[in-house]
Amino acid sequence: MVGARRLRVAAVALGAVGGGFSALYALLSEQGRRARLAIGVPEAPPPRADGVYTPAHLHGIRPSLRFAVVGDSMAAGLGVDREDELPGVLMARGLAEEADRPVRLTTYAISGSTTNDLPAQVDRVLQDPPDVALVIIGANDVTTRVSIGTAVTVLATEVRRLRLAGIGVVVGTCPDLGAIRPIAQPLRSVARSWSLRLAKEQKTAVEQAGGVAVPLADLLSPEFLARPGDLFSADRFHPNAAGYDAAAAILLAPLCSVAGVWHGGPLPEWPQRSALAEARRPTTRIVAWLNRKHRQQK
């Protein structure tokens, strides 16, 4: 009889816990639905501006450096209005200035892609291998609930494929989805935790596969949290032109390094969030170039 009573108590307790999980799941599902409505569906894909970008003062005739952009909507540049605001264009121009040679940009990134879509993109890249590739991926893995294990395994495999082809690889890891204001709490905290866990695992996997990982969440999240109105586009999910400038400022140096054209000295270890200001300190020619571009646009 004592055993039966304990079983009944346990059943009631499990039912209460199960009911709590059901209620939480229903709440998170409803918040996800509302966030999707608030963010909306993009009216059009981002502009494309593939082609050759030449430094302002080219010294002599030099062969083009080939640069590929792979990944999701952040890699493709969703959220900007003009071609010259695209992250690929910003970085192609920065690479050209640092290398003192033309850079041929080819964009393979597709909005909405998850890591599971990378193999098809990499297949296209390997048909005409570039010198360097930038990969930005992960946000859609979180929003579509791709398991972290699956996402990391696929990413590592594709980075190895690119490296075996002699391509220098830089990966911008998953951004911090906790900075996305249309996502209500507690779903925003769940998304933040998941995205940061994914980013951490991505960094380890990319480095083991021979690529260079840039922790976008660590380096950009404080700024996006502090100035969401300045750095997010109208959908409040994708960066705007200023947001992509901020990302380009931290991605250009490692891109130049893996391309073998970096002349700014040894790259430091990536700092923690508390050292964000030091990380963005304008001491390199690349960041100075971005500052000049801003002044010219004003």
UniProtKB/TrEMBL annotation:
| GO MF, one example | phosphatidylcholine lysophospholipase activity
Keywords, comma-separated and alphabetical = Membrane, Transmembrane, Transmembrane helix
Q: Which CDD domains match?
A: FeeA_FeeB_like
Q: Which residues cross the membrane?
A: 7-28
SUPFAM superfamilies associated with the record: SGNH hydrolase
Q: Residue limits of the SGNH hydrolase-type esterase domain?
A: 69-246
What is the protein name stated in its UniProt record? Lysophospholipase L1-like esterase
